[in-house]
């Protein structure tokens, strides 16, 4: 069904989806993986992390985590 859309102003779109009207399928176009150590994602004005010894050893046996080829 067609949509009637009035005046629109998109000032910023960082990796999101803007859709007007109908859509059969919306699928992601990117994939990422992040590995962080203990206390590395802490945010705030005063942060104290007493972790001692910390390490992130990664053994990723998956060849493909999220295939995005052919996601049209």
Give short descriptive properties of this protein.
72 residues, little secondary structure, 0% helix, flat
Describe the fold and architecture.
- This protein is largely without helices or strands and 72 residues long.
- It has no helices and no strands.
- The model has no long low-confidence stretch (mean pLDDT 75).
Helix content: under 10%
- Report the mean per-residue pLDDT as an integer: 75
What does the overall shape look like? Answer: flat
How far is the first residue's CA from the last residue's CA?
21 Å
Strand content: under 5%
Number of strands: 0
Which blocks of ≥5 consecutive residues have pLDDT under 50? none
Biggest pleated-sheet summary: none
Number of helices: 0
Secondary structure category: little secondary structure
Q: What is the radius of gyration computed over CA atoms, rounded to a whole number of angstroms?
A: 21 Å
SSE blueprint and pairings:
Layout: no helix or strand
Task: Provide a quick synopsis of the model.
The chain has no helices and no strands. It is low in regular secondary structure and 72 residues long.
